[in-house]
Design goal:
The complex is a heterodimer of chains A (259) and B (334). By secondary structure, chain A is α/β, with parallel strands linked by helices. Chain A has a single domain (2-84, 156-256), classed as Rossmann fold. Chain A is built from eight helices and 13 strands. With 334 residues, chain B is mainly α. Chain B has helices at 9-30, 40-48, 54-87, 100-113, 118-142, 147-172, 178-186, 195-214, 218-222, 226-231, 236-258, 264-276, 280-304, 312-330. In chain B, helix 2 (40-48) packs across helix 3. The radius of gyration of chain B is 20 Å and the shape is globular. Classes of the chains: A alpha/beta (259), B mainly alpha (334). The interface between A and B is large, with 37 and 36 residues.
Chain lengths: 259, 334
């Protein structure tokens, strides 16, 4: 679905994404890991077409990103920003229905069928009861779910998330991760940058490990998250601790070894 | 922070209906206000031709354009204020943020200095308002900040420049006739509204309102960060431009017609947002009507209450300042 080859980009003289390649197919969960400032956000911004790339190619279903209009992009890939405080106090229904913007002509307001999609998306994520709530009064995890519902209304199969678990407590993190796992099962492809531990990963899950110089390695979790790779990427002594819980779920967390 | 409950979608329909009826009622009643008083029955008699009094018809003919002007100026200032507040993501913004009003003032002052008639003063004001916003856009291109911040900064620059030029003209003006006329125009007044001046402003206001009506739902998406709205499939640069053109046309035409009337564009959207919530498909029509009713009421008071008429801009400012204080005291999230 998504094919990125030798992507390069950065700011003025500073190249923060250097020859990065990755592929995302249906049902893929890709974790983007890397130190602060190593270019994760830049990479995601280039993939969604918000930032211009220097070189390399980005293809959605085989079509080069340069040939896609803003509306076409919206139907292929959705983007969920980090937590932010919106300028105005919209309710959940009005926030989620904004996901229909790419499918509506410029002069149209959402109709019944758009609101039906809103209800469907909220139902899928189990937050239908929030529909009339004020968005800003929800918890961090609930707000992320609302933004995911908004992304679902775009009917795009690829979901890109920039640090969705940032500043969420365990309960909220679990809420969001469960929703993402559900979407993966339905065939969506999710790519998210994260700092936290990777819980309950599947063998098909992938990781893109970015280093400070902008280069990256891509592959399955157990292949990529070796001690040498992690230490090289973060530039500090680190170890990856794998654990298997009583239900066979596999988890991984990175811990520094020199504290 | 108090818990805010905005009215529901269903109740909004009743609100809109109620406001529409109130508007019509107020317009009819206002026709009866003034030195030559008429009650509502008299007004109807004159309109339907049942009254034998020829004076009634003349009085209505004089009042009618002014009353309509008061209503549509109130509506135009409200919707343009609401729109700027939305696209610039700042509820404290007034329609002059991009320099429309300051530019219009400069245009009017220039026309007065050149000794032109009322209609030309109106056209100069309208044109200068548009030019000011155009200048704001051009300057904003060279400012390397975020799109909205650039616009606001440039707007402040252009507004300030226009204000300085206006002040300079006041300095150079003839103190017996030009200066008082400029000063009076800058205080905002509906006393010089005639059928002609109303008709000249109507097409531009209509286009402005039409553009905003077309974009009424898109404006919501434009209150998001650029990266979000773009990822949702919106051509942010183009849509913002369309919306700002619409708001500027309506606002500039309104200022050309009635002079500088402040506070309406800031206050009315605030009040409306507390009632209907920030969703623009509701915010725009409701704030238009509340704004129209408000300014018409103010104009009725201003021309009936005292022997000497206070410029409406002043009257509104007297109400605006205490209101603003109440607003910032409450600190509620709108």
């Amino acid at each position: 679905m998504l094919n990125v080859t030798s992507l390069c980009g950065g700011y003025y003289k500073n190249i923060v994404v250097n020859e990065v390649s990755l592929q995302a197919n249906e049902g893929d969960m890709i974790y983007v890991l890397g130190a602060n400032g190593c270019g994760k956000t830049t990479l995601l911004n280039m993939i969604i077409g918000y930032k211009k790339r220097e070189s390399g190619s980005i293809e959605f279903d085989g079509i080069n990103i340069d040939e896609l209009s803003v509306k076409q992009m919206a139907k292929l890939v959705s983007y969920i920003p980090q937590q932010h405080v919106p300028a105005y106090n919209y309710n959940v229904r009005d926030v989620v229905v904004m996901g229909r913007a790419g499918s509506l002509p410029i002069y149209a307001a959402p109709k019944d069928k758009d609101f039906a999609l809103v209800n469907e998306s909220l139902d899928m994520l189990g937050i239908a009861h929030f529909i009339d709530a004020q968005y800003s009064e929800l918890s961090g995890g609930e707000r992320q779910l609302v933004l995911i519902a908004r992304a679902l209304c775009q009917q795009a199969k690829i979901i890109i998330m920039d640090e969705p678990l940032q500043s969420l407590d365990f309960v909220n993190q679990a809420m969001v991760l469960r929703a993402l796992k559900l979407l993966i099962k339905k065939g969506y492809s999710v790519m998210m940058s994260t700092h936290t531990a990777i819980s309950n990963y599947a063998d098909t899950d992938k990781v893109l490990l970015m280093s400070r110089k902008g280069s990256a390695v891509f592959g399955s979790i157990e292949d990529i998250l070796t001690r040498e790779n992690i230490e090289r990427a973060y530039g500090t002594p680190l170890q990856a601790i794998f654990s298997i819980d009583e239900r066979g779920g596999k988890h991984i967390i990175c811990m520094p070894t020199n504290v | 922070m108090r818990k805010l409950h905005h009215i529901s979608q269903k109740n909004t329909k009743y609100l809109v209906l109620g406001l529409a009826m109130t508007s019509v009622l107020l317009i009819v009643l206002s026709l009866g206000f003034g030195y030559y008083r008429m009650n509502i029955a008299d007004v109807f008699h004159v309109i339907t031709g049942a009254s034998g009094d020829p004076n009634g018809w003349i009085v209505l003919g004089i009042r009618f354009p002014r009353i309509i002007a008061a209503y549509i100026i109130g509506a135009a200032l409200s919707v343009s204020g609401a729109t700027y507040q939305g696209v610039l993501k700042n509820p404290l913004v007034s329609p002059d943020i991009l320099g429309v009003a300051s530019g219009a003032g400069m245009g009017a002052a220039l026309a007065i200095m050149l000794g032109l008639n009322n209609l030309m003063i109106q056209i100069f004001a309208f044109g200068a308002g548009l030019v000011a916003v155009l200048a704001t856009y051009i300057f904003a291109k060279h400012v390397k900040f975020d799109r909205r911040v650039s616009l606001i900064l440039s707007g402040v620059l252009v507004g300030s420049l226009a204000f300085s030029i206006t002040t300079m003209m006041k300095y150079l003006a003839d103190t017996t006739d030009q200066l008082p006329e400029i000063t009076y125009w800058l205080m905002g007044s509906l006393s010089r509204v005639s059928t002609n001046s109303l008709l000249v402003s109507l097409p531009f206001m209509a286009v402005g309102f039409a553009l905003l009506f077309v974009m009424r739902w898109r404006i919501n998406v434009l209150t998001l960060d650029d990266i979000e709205s773009k990822s949702l499939g919106v051509n942010t640069k183009r849509d913002m431009r369309i919306v700002i053109v619409g708001a500027t046309l309506a606002c500039s035409a309104a200022v050309g017609l009635g002079g500088l009337i402040g506070w309406v564009g800031l206050m009315i959207p605030h009040i409306t947002r507390a009632i209907t919530g920030p969703q623009y498909t509701r915010l725009l029509p409701v704030s238009a009507m509340i704004g129209g009713i408000f300014l018409l009421l103010m104009d009725d008071i201003v021309r009936s209450l005292f022997v000497m008429e206070i410029p409406i801009g002043l009257a509104v400012a007297f109400i605006g300042a205490p209101f603003f204080y109440m607003l910032i005291r409450r600190r509620r999230k709108c």
